Amino acid sequence: MKNILYISSSARKYNDHKPQHQSISRMLGKHFLNELSADLPDVEVVHRDLSIHQPAFIDEAFLAAAFEKHSLSEEQQQILAASDLAIKEVKDADVIVISSPMYNYGMPAVLKAWFDLVIRVNQTFSFDLARGDKPLLPILSGKSVVLLASWGECEFKKGETQHHLNHLSSHIEQLSPYLGADNFYEIASEYQEFNDQRHQDSKQKAIEDTIELAKLLKAKHVTGH
Ligand SMILES: Cc1cc2nc3c(=O)[nH]c(=O)nc-3n(C[C@H](O)[C@H](O)[C@H](O)COP(=O)(O)O)c2cc1C
Predict the structure, then answer these.
(1) Cα–Cα distance between 48 and 79 in angstroms, integer?
(2) What is the pLDDT of residues 10-21, one digit of tens each?
(3) Main-chain phi, psi angles of 83, to 5 degrees
(4) Predicted local confidence at residue 152, as pLDDT
(5) What is the pLDDT of residues 35-86, one digit of tens each?
(6) Which phi and psi angles does 87 have, rounded to 5°?
(7) Are 134 and 125 in contact (CB under 8 A)?
(8) Would you indicate the residue range of the signal peptide (predicted)?
(9) pLDDT band, residue 1 (cuts 50/70/90)
């Protein structure tokens, strides 16, 4: 059995039959998952839609429980329950697919809230001052993390003129080792706000790249070739 964890985070929905105002990042997620699970009935996809089931923000009680050195009280166990489940889903996954819009040059708040639940001491990273100035070390490994993104403007990709403004891709790439990523992949559709030919071309290219990447990861993680 191979497991895919799919995290979607756009505030917009996606419906094949409606041409306008549909989430592009969700549309890419749909193409990716269709291709990845095609002809593979044993692949299990766990889908967490963060815009419907919004993660709670962490607070002082959460941090006290997460850093508790002794056994947890029942109340602390409850406080950590959503984090425990999210971490289990990450641990169980071979491929983690994150579909995300760019909001204010970064990730949506619901996605950041999910990362704050998942990246937890002694669960997804260890902390040891004996390592000097870099005390954090990811615990998980062997996974692929895929970011399927959409943004309204352009020139945000690596090597392009506005890459320094793109805090969505760089942030998620930086966090991906804490999800256990050995490999990070990114595909983005651009120019949504212009709604012109450049947007249509970019969207079409992102769909094609998404399907190609799904084939590659299917060979790598699922069929093992
Ligand atoms: C609240 C909000 C903030 C946005 N901020 C940016 C931005 O900083 N840069 C950008 O290029 N596009 C921005 N956009 C445009 C979205 O990234 C674009 O509409 C994208 O397609 C959204 O993803 P979705 O289609 O999956 O919903 C923003 C849109 C919204 C609703």
Answers:
(1) 19
(2) 999 998 777 677
(3) -65, -45
(4) 98
(5) 988 877 788 999 999 999 999 999 999 999 999 999 999 999 999 999 999 9
(6) -65, -40
(7) no
(8) none
(9) very low
CA distance 150 to 148: 7
Atom of ligand 1 nearest to the CA of 11: 27
Is residue 105 classed as helix, strand or coil in its secondary structure?
coil
CA of 102 relative to ligand 1 center, distance in Å: 5
Of ligand 1's listed atoms, the one at least distance from the Cα of 151 is 17
All structural domains of the chain, each given as residue ranges with its CATH number in brackets, are: 3-222 (3.40.50.360)
Q: What is the DSSP letter of 106?
A: B
Strand order of the β-sheet with 181-189 is 44-49, 3-8, 95-101, 143-150, 181-189
The reply to whether 71 sits in an annotated binding site is: no
